[in-house]
């Protein structure tokens, strides 16, 4: 058994785990894996127009906990054409994240979400139109503290709402600005694990015994699950090698 081989293997495992740590001056930030950057306005490109309707425009404040928007609160709308807008705003120091939970309308293959859709608009730029045949890849973290959601549909959507089928549901919340903007590869659930970490508290200089102490996590945040597994595997290999050498 080659001891050098195991040493190199342990080094590779731990190095891989440490690379997955979250680094930014001691703040816990989102890891830049499986994130598609948001679309931005190009030079000369016009911003997305304001909603062409005023009967269904909602201004909502995003907090630290998930809020829910669905068609269940819109049963009094009887128009054959459905058009609604939600302007979701967070504190200036935070970003908005939205996660589409349900989309069951716009099933026409030829329409391709052109006439019946949920649209995400961020900083004046559309981030895509989505329907039952084309869902977002996962959560969308906005570039700033405001994001706009437009939902449009024809008689099919209006009928689903009248029949209380709840054809759309999405959730929203605010997250720290250190979270990287863009589309994730997974969709959050209200009852699921919180994947958006908060900034850890800093040591107060007025705390007795802690005066002038530095934050020990200045360089790195906590190890991720892969880092923890790497440390456990490496430790087990070292113990195994020691036992084998003692037996010999």
UniProtKB/TrEMBL annotation:
Residues 194-209 have a biased composition (Polar residues). Residues 194-215 are annotated as: Disordered. The chain crosses the membrane at residues 220-247. The keyword Membrane applies. Residues 56-175 form the CUB domain. Pfam families: CUB. Keywords: Disulfide bond, Membrane, Signal, Transmembrane, Transmembrane helix. SUPFAM superfamilies: Spermadhesin, CUB domain. It comes from the Eukaryota. Residues 1-20 form the signal peptide. This is CUB domain-containing protein. It comes from Ciona intestinalis. The lineage of its organism: Eukaryota, Metazoa, Chordata, Tunicata, Ascidiacea.
């Amino acid at each position: 058994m080659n001891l050098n081989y195991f040493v190199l293997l342990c080094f590779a495992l731990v190095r891989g785990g440490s690379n997955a740590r979250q680094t930014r001056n001691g703040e816990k930030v989102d890891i830049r894996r499986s994130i598609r950057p948001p679309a931005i306005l190009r030079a000369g490109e016009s911003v997305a127009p304001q909603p062409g309707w005023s009967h269904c425009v909602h201004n909502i404040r995003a907090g630290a906990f998930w809020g829910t928007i669905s068609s269940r609160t819109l049963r009094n709308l009887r128009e054959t054409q459905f058009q609604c807008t939600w302007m979701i705003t967070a504190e200036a120091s935070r970003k908005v994240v939205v996660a589409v939970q349900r989309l069951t309308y716009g099933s026409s293959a030829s329409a391709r979400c052109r006439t019946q859709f949920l649209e995400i608009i961020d900083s004046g730029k559309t981030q895509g139109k989505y329907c039952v045949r084309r869902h977002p890849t996962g959560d969308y973290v906005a570039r700033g503290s405001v994001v706009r959601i437009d939902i449009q549909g024809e008689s099919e959507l209006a009928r689903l709402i009248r029949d209380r089928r709840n054809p759309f549901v999405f959730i929203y919340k605010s997250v720290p600005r250190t979270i990287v903007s863009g589309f994730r590869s997974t969709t959050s659930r209200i009852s699921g694990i919180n994947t958006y970490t908060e900034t850890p508290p800093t040591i107060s200089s007025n705390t007795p015994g802690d005066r002038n102490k530095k934050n020990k996590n200045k360089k790195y945040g906590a190890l991720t699950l892969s880092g923890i597994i790497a440390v456990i595997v490496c430790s087990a290999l070292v113990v195994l090698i020691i036992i084998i050498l003692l037996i010999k």
